[in-house]
Design goal:
By secondary structure, this protein is an alpha+beta fold. The chain has twelve helices and five strands.
Length: 308
């Protein structure tokens, strides 16, 4: 049991150097799991109980959420920002009048919204209402625990460091997008359910489809929306990233390639559907694409260049 929640947390970490707080997170998640299990046993309404086999996942998610808020990594901030823009409130259907007051720290309404959204995805047939007593009991227990435990930690997070890393090239953005869509606390449950619906499994194509086009119970937002709001980039870059929902999928004929030593810096291709030419940034050793070849793929823009 305790090993499971720690392993979930370790498997979800982004690539790159950890933050100073990272080493404490597995133990915090283990302790939180025990607290949630105790709270679950005390639920008065036994018809609305979080699935026990998924309690470790919930504990891990809550700790990663805590890391996000504590270090201001930007993921939850992005969610609330988009909700304000589209719905006029940071947390639709949260208890109380969410639009009337400022949300700070481990506010009960934030945790309630997080657990309720994941509960809908975990068990949609018996998901409780946003204000159900069992859900609020979970949120109260988790909020007090996270407030106390994170108060002792440095606000230095591996997730924040990863997201704050270079965003110059399209593949640097794609790297962040893949992690966010497949391993972050925001989307990994949604991704796992999406993959289970596809017989071919987590292939590159299926994974790209999820991270670039799937809407989720986070107010209909996908990984692109959350990443666009979390990155420290210009408004123009954010607008460009959100166009990645509209991938330019077509057959392309390779017209030329520009090599520098063993590295193919770019290739020029012509879209055989619309006749347009695209200069595609590669930065790739041993590039397999040769002039004259026809390749099926999708292109997305980033800072005036195109990327597969």
């Amino acid at each position: 049991m305790s090993v499971a929640v720690k392993e979930i947390l370790r498997a979800s970490r982004p690539p790159g150097p950890p933050g100073r707080a990272d080493k404490y997170l597995p133990d915090i998640a283990q302790d939180l799991r025990g607290l949630l299990e105790k709270s679950l046993r005390g639920f008065a309404d036994r018809s609305m109980v979080w699935p026990g086999e998924s309690l470790s996942e919930l504990a891990a998610v809550l700790v990663e959420f805590g890391e996000d808020l504590h270090a201001d990594a930007g993921l939850w901030r992005s969610l609330e920002s988009y909700n304000r823009e589209f719905f006029g409130t940071p947390l639709p259907l949260a208890i109380g009048d969410c639009s009337a007051g400022v949300l700070n720290g481990f506010d009960l309404r934030r945790i309630q919204h997080l657990i309720w959204t994941l509960w809908m995805e975990m068990d949609p047939e018996i998901c409780p209402s946003p204000g159900h007593a069992n859900l609020l009991q979970f949120a109260n227990v988790a909020g007090k625990f996270l407030t106390e435990r994170f108060a002792r930690l440095p606000a230095d997070s591996g997730v924040k460091n990863f997201l704050a890393g270079p965003s110059r090239f399209g593949w640097e953005i794609k790297r962040k997008l893949v992690w966010l869509g497949t391993k972050s606390y925001f989307f990994r449950l949604f991704f796992a359910n999406y993959i289970s619906e596809h017989e071919e499994g987590a292939t590159v194509g299926v994974t790209d489809d999820f991270i670039c086009q799937e809407s989720t119970s986070w107010s209909g937002m996908g990984a692109i929306d959350i990443l666009a709001g979390a990155l420290d980039v210009s408004a123009e870059d954010r607008a460009t990233l959100r166009t990645w929902y509209e991938r330019h999928a077509a057959f392309y004929r390779v017209l030329s390639r520009q090599d520098h030593g063993e590295i193919t810096e770019s290739i020029v291709v012509r879209n055989l559907v619309n006749g347009e030419s695209y200069n595609v940034h590669m930065g790739m050793p041993r590039c397999p694409f040769q002039p004259g070849q026809v390749v099926f793929g999708s292109l997305t823009p980033w800072r005036c260049e195109w990327y597969w």
